[in-house]
Structures are given as structure tokens and as C-alpha cells.
Amino acid sequence: MTASARIDKGGLEMADTAQHLDIGRVLQNTIGVITRNPLIFLGLSFLIVALPQALIQLATGVSTTGEDATAMFEIFSSPSMVAAGVGGWLLTIILSVLLQATFIIATVKDLNGQQISLGECVGQAIGKLLPLIGLGILMTLGVMLGMLLLIIPGLILALMWIVASPVMMAEDKGIIDSLKRSAELTKGSKRWIVLLFVVYIIIATILGLLMIPFAFAGTAALMVVGLVINTLTGALQGTGIAAVYVDLRIAKEGGNTEELANIFA
Fold it and tell me: Directed axis angle between helix 219-253 and helix 164-171, to 10°?
């Protein structure tokens, strides 16, 4: 066994003896998966994340009244607009869960060198949609409660549970068992996960800065740029979490991505 996992066309093969997250490897896998399958990952991110967000902005009028404080107050004082906003928020959560689940399956298959079938990936993700939504609600409540307790406990829970969704998809566990399993996998890797988040934040910040020149180019131009940026960040986030799960599991337990991919066969 080598000191670090070796990556080739067949995916990750050997366990990392350090048994913690390898940031470089996760980034390499994340970018590699997206660039090998741009139509699937960027296309889904556009349809499931970026486009719905843009439509919600249009429906609530946020994109056209953002500079008018009075108009903004009228929006949030209108029951119909508040209802639209809440409905849009719930829709965004459901679509994000579906995207994450689909990306988990597709990422594992890609890292093992298997052909990705979009229909199969989406179908399997839909089959787990309700449990994943339940998991997401419990995670959100837990992290929010932790945030109320001097913030730190909430951050710790967020780090502990970051791969709970991939666990549920790949290992067919229930909600509580998925949270426990995620805590087990992330043990000893939390600092590396934080550093990985910093890298993603830097990337998102750079992408956000690209919007500045378009701030005075009109609403349409700003929305188009926003669509592009949200598509990229959605793909990076969804694929990145799946890549983190794969890396943690193989680093701690050995094996290879074929064992994981067979679950979704």
C-alpha cells in the first residue's frame, strides 16, 4: 500500500494510509468528473439550480427592484409574494437534493471509468428523494440549533454531516444511521474539509467578482452572468461533496471505486 491513493482511468485504487481527506485529490476528481461530462454536470446544474433561481428572482421581482428599498418592502409585505418566496425556497431545496443525489451516482460511476446514463442516475435519485429531503430537514434543524449555541457546535455538526447524503445514496442507510456514518467518515478530516471549503469560497468569490463589470449593464446582462456563475458553482458543489465522500471512504477503508459503483449498477 502506498502512502497516498493512486488515481488512474479506473479511479481511486489504494487507500491513503494517512486516513484523512486529500484536498488535492478531491479537487482533481471534482474538476476531472465535470470536464469529462460537461453536458451532464453543467447541464443539470443549469436546469436544476441556476435556472430555477433565476425564475424565482423574476417571480418575486428581486432582480428588478433590488435598488429600490420601498419596492423591496412592498414585496416582503405582500402575502402572495411571501408565499411565492417560500414556495420557491422549498422548490430550490428539493431540486438541490435531487441534483446532489444524481451527482453522487454519476461521480462514483465516472471515477470508476463507467459510462454514465443520465436517465438511470436521475431515476435512482428520485427513488431516494423523500428520505433525502427528510435527512436535509433534520440536518438543517440540527445545524441551526447548534448555531444558536455559540455557533461553534453548529459548524462542527455541519462538518460531521457533510457526507450524510452520499452515505444514504451509496450505502442505503436510514436518516439517523446516515448521520452517524458521516460522522465516522469525517472523523480526523474536519480541518481538511474546512480548508477545502476555503478553496471553494475563493473560487466562488472570484466568479462573483466577474459580475461586477455587468452590475451597470442592465438586469438582463446581470441575470445571464448570474446563470453562468450559479451553473458553475452548483456543479462544483454537488460534484465536490460526492468526491469528498469517495475520498474519505477509500482513504479510511481501502478498496476502490468499483465497489461503490456496483451499488448503483
Answer: 60
Domain spans of the chain, in order of start: 20-264
Dihedral over alpha carbons 35, 190, 141, 49 (to 10 degrees): -10
What is the tens place of the pLDDT at every residue in 105-153? 899 888 888 888 888 888 888 989 999 999 988 998 999 999 988 788 8
- Crossing angle of helices 175-186 and 152-160, in 10° steps, is 100
Helix axis angle, 79-111 relative to 23-36, nearest 10°? 100
Distance CA 230, CA 26 (A): 21
Model confidence band, residue 11 (pLDDT cutoffs 50, 70, 90):
very low
- Predicted structure pTM score: 0.78
Give the number of other Cβ atoms within 10 Å of residue 81's Cβ.
16
Say if residues 50 and 223 touch (Cβ distance below 8 Å). Answer: no
Nearest C-alpha neighbor of 41 from the set 263, 238, 199, 201:
238
Burial classification of residue 245, based on how many CB atoms lie within 10 Å of its CB (0-12 exposed, 13-18 middle, 19 or more buried): buried
138-to-179, 195, 262 alpha-carbon distances in Å? 10, 25, 29
